[in-house]
């Protein structure tokens, strides 16, 4: 009889972590987390709603913004059940297959958001550096194709990564550092060789988020060069003003991501609460802040949102 291969059929149960050392206060800590989720879900839903319903917002810039709101919603909903389950019911257990599924959505939406931010930087580059051809280049059909590529790119790379994870055996502690399943966190619990998994995971991050970040920086180098060639100071301020929201979104997305990656690779001796706090910032701050930034800094979005709240019922 062939020996049983544990890696081909996983029955492991992992244990998620809330806030280490503050387990007795989880009910109270759930209040700010509930508020953050409520702001993120309602804010991004509102952005999607106004872009869909307001014909004046049916432009490339706002189509890309709707993609950003969609990915932020996906990130929030991917962890809502497990995170609040821990705080409210101490429901820390998650099956291996459930963990794989959650990782697929978390990492998938993360890579998609990175791609959306790159598409938005390209939108700003065309609008500022080649405004006369803007409508010709960013047609509706091309934007749909870009959206399709973003989804395919964000998901296909994850399939081999997660299949490689399923071949591992887990014989150490099954306690994860976060309130959701995160690939490097799960991989560290394996008692088999993870060099291939680690190398492949790093390659995917570099080829997606890393590549996107370099192209975003390059686009802004070209944008700055183009703006500085404008003679009028007012026109320069106006051009830079159209980029502030996007620059803010890039910073609040990549900074927590880089911080979390560094903690996982070099912070082995860091206190558990550091891992948890950075992981929660990485997950929740971009979806919370993006709708606020675009509602405050983008006049057309702000007017559309106020129009909904100030409109009188018939």
Task: Give structural notes.
The chain is mainly α. Helices cover 74% and strands 2% of the residues. It contains twelve helices and two strands; from the N terminus they run βααβαααααααααα. It has helices at 26-53, 60-89, 96-129, 134-137, 140-156, 158-166, 183-187, 195-228, 233-241, 244-266, 272-297, 299-310, and strands at 13-15, 93-95. It has a two-stranded antiparallel ribbon with strand order 1-2. α1 crosses α12. The longest helix is centred in the middle third of the chain and has 34 residues, at 96-129.
Radius of gyration, Cα only, in angstroms? 21 Å
Shape: globular
Question: From N to C, what is the helix and strand string?
Answer: EHHEHHHHHHHHHH
Largest sheet: 2 strands, antiparallel
Helix fraction by DSSP (H/I, runs of at least 4): over 70%
Quick take:
With 314 residues, this protein is mainly α. 74% of the residues lie in helices and 2% in strands. Helix 1 (26-53) runs antiparallel to helix 2, helix 3 (96-129) packs antiparallel against helix 6 (158-166) and helix 11 crosses helix 12.
